[in-house]
Structures are given as structure tokens and as C-alpha cells.
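Batch manifest, entry 17 of 40.
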Amino acid sequence: MNLPNKLTLARIAMTVLMVVFLLLPGPVWAWLAAVMFVAASLTDLADGRIARSRHLITNFGKFMDPLADKILNYSVMVMLIPEGLIPTVVLVIILFREFLVSGIRLSAAEQGRVVAANIWGKLKTVVQDLSLVAILVLRALDAPVLNTAAGVMMWLCAALTVVSGAVYLVQNIDVLKDAD
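Output type: C-alpha cells
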């Protein structure tokens, strides 16, 4: 197993630890959860760069890397819903878009086509990751602005999610028209 794939698996393991830290009360655990999320997010940057620069792209990595990202992000979102930091409907919007995009990609793959990510999806991902980092840090600081900031950031994520999903659908509607 090459280094990028090991980093992908490490991201999944870090997600498990982060969830445990989110379950434990106290500022130390809140900080550890925030640090773990940042570290796991950085492995996503590292594994992609290493895989491309060293020509270590594998089918395992193509499948597991985006899955590890989703496991990380959606785990933290689910864990923060009971605290009122992530509106449930925002997570539903994000998941709806993910299932839509996955369906289009599967349909395209059956047709022998590859559907690439677009700038809107990348922007959505960056804003989502930065928002989650900010929310985890504000949570660790026990900042009074936490609930308001979390709500604003997550609704911005939801808006970008809708836009990126709509653009993705419009750009790839032919994939669905050609599906059996």
C-alpha cells in the first residue's frame, strides 16, 4: 500500500478519534477534536498532492479518498447537530447533493464516461471545511458568538451546495438522458 492510500486510511482512523473526542465533555477534548479535524483535513491535501506528483494514483485511492472525506465531514456534522451547531436541514441538503452527484457519476461510469468535479464543487468543499474548522475552534473556545457564527457558516455551505449541485446537474443532464 502506497503512502497516499495510507494517509487516506489514517484520515478515517482520525475521524474515529475525533468522534470520540466530540463525545467527551470539557475544553481539552473540544480542542483535541478541532486539532484532529484539521490534521485529518490536511491528510486530504497531502495524499492528493503526493499521489499526483509521484504518479501513485490507484483505483483504491480514487474510491477511498472521496469516501474518507465524506466520512470525516459528515461525522463531525452529525456530532454537532445535537448541540444545535449544525442545522439538520443543512446536512440533509448537503447529503441530497452528494447522492445526486454520486448518481450522476455512477450513470456516467456505466456509459464509459468520466464526470470531473467543477469549480463550484471545489468552492463548496473549501467553504465547508473552513466552516467546520471555525465551528470546532469556536466550540473549543466556548465563544459567545458560536451559535450565530455556526448558523451563518452552515447556511452559506447549504447555499453553495445547492448552487454546485444545480450547476453539476445542468452540466451533466445529458448523462441522465442517455441512461437506460
